[in-house]
């Protein structure tokens, strides 16, 4: 019978690879890219929490990581709102690097 910790680690690594795959393959919209990045951060947080619980050390490092991931998500959403207001949509093909 498989160990629960092995299944949890496998699930976290699977989440990271699924987020990476969606980040690479579905890059038409900025919102899809931001959601896949957040999904990868959730998988890394899960893996970090599992590792720290197995070691038996304090869990404050994972809470600090979760706080940084939430700040990254808020920054991404604010950039998304700024881009939608300035360009009208979130398609990557409509962004022009020569515009200010």
From TrEMBL:
<feature type="transmembrane region" description="Helical">
    <location>
        <begin position="59"/>
        <end position="84"/>
    </location>
</feature>
<dbReference type="GO" id="GO:0042773">
    <property type="term" value="P:ATP synthesis coupled electron transport"/>
</dbReference>
<dbReference type="GO" id="GO:0005743">
    <property type="term" value="C:mitochondrial inner membrane"/>
</dbReference>
<keyword id="KW-0496">Mitochondrion</keyword>
<keyword id="KW-1133">Transmembrane helix</keyword>
<keyword id="KW-1278">Translocase</keyword>
<keyword id="KW-0679">Respiratory chain</keyword>
<keyword id="KW-0520">NAD</keyword>
<protein>
    <recommendedName>
        <fullName>NADH-ubiquinone oxidoreductase chain 4L</fullName>
        <ecNumber>7.1.1.2</ecNumber>
    </recommendedName>
</protein>
<dbReference type="GO" id="GO:0030964">
    <property type="term" value="C:NADH dehydrogenase complex"/>
</dbReference>
<dbReference type="GO" id="GO:0008137">
    <property type="term" value="F:NADH dehydrogenase (ubiquinone) activity"/>
</dbReference>
<keyword id="KW-0812">Transmembrane</keyword>
<keyword id="KW-0999">Mitochondrion inner membrane</keyword>
<feature type="transmembrane region" description="Helical">
    <location>
        <begin position="6"/>
        <end position="24"/>
    </location>
</feature>
<keyword id="KW-0249">Electron transport</keyword>
<dbReference type="InterPro" id="IPR039428">
    <property type="entry name" value="NUOK/Mnh_C1-like"/>
</dbReference>
<keyword id="KW-0813">Transport</keyword>
<feature type="transmembrane region" description="Helical">
    <location>
        <begin position="31"/>
        <end position="53"/>
    </location>
</feature>
<keyword id="KW-0830">Ubiquinone</keyword>
<keyword id="KW-0472">Membrane</keyword>
<dbReference type="InterPro" id="IPR001133">
    <property type="entry name" value="NADH_UbQ_OxRdtase_chain4L/K"/>
</dbReference>
<dbReference type="GO" id="GO:0016651">
    <property type="term" value="F:oxidoreductase activity, acting on NAD(P)H"/>
</dbReference>
<comment type="similarity">
    <text>Belongs to the complex I subunit 4L family.</text>
</comment>
<comment type="function">
    <text>Core subunit of the mitochondrial membrane respiratory chain NADH dehydrogenase (Complex I) which catalyzes electron transfer from NADH through the respiratory chain, using ubiquinone as an electron acceptor.</text>
</comment>
<dbReference type="Pfam" id="PF00420">
    <property type="entry name" value="Oxidored_q2"/>
</dbReference>
